[in-house]
Amino acid sequence: MQITWLGHSSFRIEIGGQVILLDPWLEGNPMLPETHHAAATAGATHILLTHAHFDHLGGLLPLAKAIGVPVVGQYDLISHWQSKEGIDGIGFNKGGTVDLGGVRVTMVHATHSTSIATPDGPQVTGSECGYMIAAEGHVIYVSGDTDVMADMGVFNALHHPDIGILCAGGYYTMDMARAAYAAKTFFDFKVVIPCHYRTFPVLEQSAEMLAKGLPGVDVIEPQVMQAIRI
C-alpha cells in the first residue's frame, strides 16, 4: 500500500490493485504545482469525494471526464453530476458499502458543511462524510472535514481501522489537539497521517502537538508527492 499526499486534504491511495484519488484538489491547490498533476493522477481507477467545498474538488469534473474514471461519493451530488455533467459515478450514502474492485469503501458520518459556489450564492450539495477503506489486511479511516464526534466510537467498534487520515488544521475543522483526543479516545490507530493543514496561514503548520498527544502511534507528517509505504 502507498499513500501519497497531494497537499491539503488530497491523497493518492494505492491499495488492493486500485488507485484512489481522495478529494483531488488540482486547480488552485497552492501545495501541488501543475507540473505534478499528471504524476499525481496517473493510473487512477476511482475518485473518492468527501464533500463539495472548493478545496476538495477543484478541477474534479474535468479530471473525471479526462481520465474516464468513476467519481464515488454521496448519492445526491453524484446523481446530479451524472445527469447534468455526464460523468461516470457511484453514488451511495452513509452506512453503505461499495466494492471498488476488491477495495471495500464504507461511507461514515462527518460533521461539517458542504456547498458549491454559484452566481446565486452557495448551493448545498448532499452532505459531508468520511470513509472506511478496507483492503490488504488494513482499514483506513478517512475523517473528511469534521470535528470530534462520539460517533467515532461506533466507527471503531464496527471497522477497527489501524490507519487514520485525520483533518487537523483547526479553524474549519478539528485542530491537532482535538484530533489527538479523537484518536486516543475512540480509536486504536497504528499510523496517523494529518491533513487539512499547512495550506493557509490560518491553519496549523505543524503536527507536533498531534504526535505529542499520541505516544506509541506512528504520526507521519506527509510531504507532497512523497509516498508513504505501509
Describe the protein's architecture and organization.
The chain is α/β, with parallel strands linked by helices and 230 residues long. The chain has a single domain, classed as Metallo-beta-lactamase, Chain A, CATH 3.60.15.10. It has helices at 37-41, 54-57, 60-67, 75-84, 151-159, 176-186, 208-212, and strands spanning 2-5, 11-15, 18-22, 46-48, 71-74, 89-92, 97-100, 103-109, 115-118, 121-124, 129-135, 138-142, 163-167, 191-195, 218-219, 227-229. The strands form 3 sheets. Strands 6-5-4-3-2-1-16 form a 7-stranded mixed β-sheet, with helices on one face. The mean pLDDT is 96.
Instruction: Give the topology string: H per helix, E per strand.
Output: EEEHEHHEHEEEEEEEHEHEHEE
* Separation, N- and C-terminal Cα atoms: 5 Å
Query: How much helicity do the residues have?
Result: 10-25%
In the CATH hierarchy, what is the architecture at level 2?
4-Layer Sandwich
Radius of gyration: 16 Å
CATH class identity: Alpha Beta
Count of the domains: 1
- Number of helical elements: 7
